[in-house]
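Researcher: Here's the sequence for the chain we discussed earlier.
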Amino acid sequence: MIQNRRKFISTMAVGSIAVPLLSDLKSWLPEQGKVRYPISLFSKPLDNYDFDFICDCIARSGIGGIDLTVRPGGKVEPGAVETSLPKLIHTAGKFHLVTDMIVTGIVSAADPYTENILRTASDSGVKYYRLGWFEYDYKSGIWETLQKYRTSLIDIAELNRKYKIHGGYQNHSGEWVGGPVWDLHELLRDFQPEFLGSQYDVRHAMVEGTDTWMIGMRLIASHIKTLAIKDFMWKTAGGKPEPVSVPLGEGMIDWDLYFKMVKELNILAPITLHIEYPLLEQGEEKLSLIQQQEIIVRKLKKDTDFISGYLRKYQLI
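Model: Thanks. This is the structure I predict for it:
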């Protein structure tokens, strides 16, 4: 469903391991300014569209930034990062969108693309990136797997320090390292959170621990530097319960408790809005580009207004 840029424009015209802390750390951390919890959109659900269309949808929905995919199959391929990423960030700026967050597949400093991605991102003004996920090696053992990855993260943290960029590991439900969150604490606890921390995802945390996610959030609070926000509800398919993503406020997340904790734990972090429910229903992909945009913008704005409402409610803006 890749859209043609010229067609869009013409249509629009019509209608242990501690890493030393830098002494000048505050000089590169983002200025909080008036917007304490800036909202960006994780670009994945729109990646098949032309980038101008993506930016226009985001801007029209009231979202201030884009959390751009820089990974295999993403909007920016790792091998093309030096040319593609600055170009897209420049384009986003024309729509008054900030690009200070990206999503990567980085799991090793030794990967031939890792340093190039971090250097280019940092030079382009990106302050935060999301790492890829680690898998458990059951033959080696759970504890042994964590120790192996802690060692891998030393070199990644050093690159983050070198390029003055924060790497966040997202807790993800399932058999990924970080799913239970307690293992994420073991993985990150000795690293300076300014360089290596957590992209905390309350949806995945609650899937793993419906009544205990708050404990994990408290445990890693000092390392939470970005917040991934989405909602879900349990559904049964074939006699097996499974989490299904839904628009914010239509699921099971206790948003009052969540934002109370964000305030109580003094977690000051940019927000990345994740849309994992269908933006277009069956058949709507056949609508004109303008009609699709109306639907997309309406849904994005609804979720954005939902977040903004809770930020105001708990005096976080």
